[in-house]
Amino acid sequence: MLLSIGDVSSITTLSRTSIRRSVSSGRFPKPVRLLERRQAWLENDIYDWLDTAVAKQKAADGSTSMTEAAQ
Prior knowledge:
By secondary structure, the protein is of the alpha+beta class. It contains 4 helices and 3 strands, in the order E-H-H-E-E-H-H.
């Protein structure tokens, strides 16, 4: 499934500006260009990025991941 920047912002709680900056710096998945002025993110890329971010945080402080907390 494809996600707009608004969808990605809602899922990650990052602002649109933060998303764009993170993409530019290589810290966030790059969007897929659909048309000259239209891009979207692959849903799997976003959730994989979130899982990695949670795993890093968990390793740093021993907290529970969002996936485990939801179960």
